[in-house]
Amino acid sequence: MPDSVLWCVSFDGTPMSGVVVEALKLGEAFRQRGHRVLLDIGYDIKEDKGRFFAPYTDEADALPGWVELVRVDEIAQIPWYTPGFVRQTLGAVRRGYQPSQTVACFEVVVEALARRIEQTWHRHGVTAVLVENGTLPENIAYTQALYRAIERYGPHLADRNGDRPFVLWRDHDLMWNSEPSSGKYGIAPYPLTPQPRNSPWIRYLALHEEARRRTLEWVPGLRDLRVLHNTFDFDRVTTASGLREHYGIPAEAALVARCTRLIPQKRADREIDLLVRLGERLGDRPAYLFLAGDPSEHPPTVAALKQQAQRLGVEDRVIFGGRLAARDLGAAGPGFSVSDLLAEADVMSFLTSYDYESYGNPIGEAVASGVPYLSTRYALYDIVYGRKGLHAPVLEVSGPDEAPLTDEFVADVAELLTNPLLRSRVAAHNRARGETYFARSRAAEMVDDLLGERPQASGARVVASGIVDGAVGRGDAPDVYSPAGRAAVPPLAAGTRMTVVIPVRDEAANLPAVIESLAGQRGPDGPLDRSLFDVLLVDNNSHDDTVVLARQLAAQHDGLRLHVIGESEQGVSCARRTGMGLAAERAQVRDGDDTGERFYLVSADADCRVAPDWLYELLSALDGDKAAIGVCDYYYDEAHFAGRPLLWEAIDRTIRSRRVAWERFGGFPDGKGFAVDRRSYQRVGGIELSYQLEGGRFVSHLSDDWDFGILVRATGDDIVYVPTSRVEINPRRVDHAIDEVVAGRAYGSGGIITMRDIRPTGPGGRDLTEAEAVQAWEFSIKDFMPKNMILAAVLTPSLLDDEGVIDLLSPELARRMASRIPQITAQTHLLSYVPIHSYKTPCFRLYFEFAEELFARLRAKVGPDIGYPPPLPDCLQEVRDTGDEERFREFVRHYCEDRESGEAHDYFGNGGVF
Known about the structure:
The chain is α/β, with parallel strands linked by helices. Among the domains are: 4-227, Rossmann fold (3-Layer(aba) Sandwich); 243-438, Glycogen Phosphorylase B (Rossmann fold, 3-Layer(aba) Sandwich). 40% of the residues lie in helices and 14% in strands. The protein contains 31 helices and 27 strands. It has an 8-stranded mixed β-sheet with strand order 20-19-16-21-24-23-27-22, sandwiched between helices. The relative contact order is 0.06.
């Protein structure tokens, strides 16, 4: 018998649910490391399932053969521990009473439960415990008892495990996620519910960053709380297994699969309505709906669904398939599994209610199986799936759980069912995106970490572009070398929280100021501890003394750690990517996937100056806010523009507008100064380069920093604006080509945005004429508004519900933009933002439709000098003059569809001005 034993306890109280499946996925990771796996389904915890003290019967048929069903010894013999007792405790919580004061024998029951749990663990030789949903207020006595048992049992394992935790405690349905509209558990924040408590024996897991954030709002001092998404086996691919033939589903039929419990909250009635609507669009091809789920769990729901199907005339095409074995677990019993169903289904449907489903395993199972899915936009859909770039028809659903089947949604589903090429492309895209977030390896790594068996992190070898003994070293180099070809970059030191990445090329003139500013970083109580950060200089083919001078300057400051690597491919985007990638890999090697303390990659430009508290403010903001990216405040020194009042006026208006917008929307990273959490950086694959043609040669696209921010925002992570972390922009960025700045072509034209040498080549310092000042401002504001106000809302529509955004836009404007954004993105089929630059089309269209109102709000919030929108292109003005707004919208669509080239791109300034 194995000397390592895992005890899993599920507070779900049902034989097969997403909670149980996820427990067993972690259980399998323990089993592969030599553990015997025991499962207590939790019948003796939840009374509302009707199974309290019920014996196990055929539950094992749906479970893998390596799982042993267990329960706490003699739990049914505890006096006063009855379904009525459980109902009393929940009722006390809902009424705001302490159960210990209002429920008879509460403390006696808690102590009796704790003793029996501990005795049972001793009898089985338990060495690890997995708790699923232990913080639900349904049975507070059991939660309290479990905590007592853990604290008593922990010292018993100390000789074996040392001071490591032996408990993974994961809450799938935290109180704010689980049926809030039903009032089943009362009203948040549930002050009487036992809060998660700090314990040397427990590691807490949250399903996503939103759950982690809200948990920490509830329990601010909770220390060991990490994020582990539900995981799925992307290697498990099942071929046709005869399911269609078994259930009499024709081979040519379109098969819609639904794999959830058959209870009212899951709203399977919507799939039956959809089946009827699809019949109107699929012609002679029949459509079938397969409803998997235990019909005995809630018979009234099954009866209602059958009556609905009969009333609508589709009862012969609605298959009630019963309880299927979980997709990712090899069941011991006979019958079909979810994996078998997905192998023969055309789509997976999950039209669940707005507030019931906190995660949505069926979507992840479909993605891993290579099957397209459709879903409602339930409360946490965007957080869990929608922002990760997956493609799917999504039905809008309101807080009151109203979700009418729109013609557009039904048409999208019909297209998936009738277009095999589209279906295969969507499935392949989703599978590739999903594997980034939901691979089973994440669960395995968490188990390794708990058991103290964490292996060397994948990708541990530090690799980046460099120059090795004068030759260009790419990708497969055994180490990273400085341009001198000798000194390897050392491992990341313990305690280092940030690496500052600075691309350089012939920057000897600016380096003294840069190094001095980094050496002079301060915190609230004096100089910033230099062990908190190091500096990675990425030399991009310098011809001057940049590298030598950098090392000399760093050596003059004790404790300032500066490393130099080379990147031979020309372009600041290439250099930044190489530096950020190496910084992330060093942190990965040091930390693995340990999420206890965050590590940040910080971008800086060699020609800009940072404030003394630049790093401290970024670190404090990101540690406190838990956002993925912190964006600095960028400004020009007015003194540099003395004698040039018209130019300064245009610059100042742009900066003031940007601050107002970023305070509400969060901003986007600019290479001049931003920080990103290392794990978020790696989740999206790092900085993505794209290439364009210039003069017959491929050159790297310049806007890598903004594109990276768009990618992070589109996948659901937050960006925070940190106005106290300040960066001064070098005025040469304006002086280098003032004629191009005035014309709005600072970085090219015709859709080409490429890097140029911004060091002035001739006399600068002149002011603008009145006409040039108007031209410069108009290009500046046209570039600013789509990028700094509209883009964030396009990527994260929920921002339009934010109080600060509503204050800026007005409630009415925010409401109408929130309504218009999904219409535009649906028309342009931007179900994800790949390629990354396709964000421009909806942003340009929204600008044209709402410019008058947006400018009015900026005038109110920034100042009357903001003025009014620049003139429309003549072609659009002609349409507007007709007074037909619908026709104007339509021609705006055609004008903006050119995306990366053409007149629309150049109208908006092509890359910004200030």
